[in-house]
Design brief:
globular, 34% strand, six-stranded antiparallel beta sheet
């Protein structure tokens, strides 16, 4: 019976991406003076997706502009803006035009022009601070053995908070 409970928990807790959607893959909120801030989106599907069906906005409701009209299958696209993203304490919402929420991303750490906030190889679940890698796959650091890490259980919650809304379940990652 415990196997059935474990299987049920896995089905309920392991998120599945809804087909025909983009995911936030990397955020570059603090560009150099001559650059735009950007959010990189990843298309995990086998189809080209039109960006016309998506909106990327911050907590105040200000929307970013998609650079291209579509994102090819298994590829990247950009949304850019100027002075819209906060360098610290920001919330981003990726929605469909019909209002359906796809993804929410929060970050609370300070960024400069040498840092971006990215997923580990398009996972959408493991976020890290890295050098910007615009329009290419993000690198994943070599895992550090837990024995060598200081015990800071509160740090992960303050650095990262993401909500994915697969259908019909809502998953919250903290």
């Amino acid at each position: 019976w415990y196997k059935y409970i474990l299987l049920l928990l896995l089905v309920l807790l392991v998120p599945k991406l809804v087909s025909a959607q983009l995911v936030i893959n990397e955020v570059y909120p603090a560009p150099k003076d001559s650059e735009y801030e950007w959010v990189e989106l990843y298309n995990p599907t086998n189809d080209t997706l039109s960006t016309d069906q998506f909106i990327l906005k911050d907590l105040t409701g200000k929307a970013m502009t998609f650079n291209d009209s579509s994102v090819p299958a298994l590829s990247y696209g950009l949304a850019t803006s100027s002075a819209l993203l906060n360098n610290k304490d920001e919330t981003l919402f990726l929605t469909k035009k019909n209002g359906e929420l796809i993804q929410t991303l929060n970050y609370s750490i300070q960024f400069d022009s040498e840092k971006s906030y990215s997923t580990c190889s398009n996972s959408a679940f493991i976020w890290q601070v890295t050098a910007p890698t615009k329009l290419v796959a993000n690198a994943c650091p070599t895992p550090t053995p837990l024995a060598s890490l200081p015990l800071l259980p509160h740090l992960r919650c303050k650095l990262f908070q993401q909500v994915l809304l697969p259908q019909p379940l809502m998953m919250v990652y903290i």
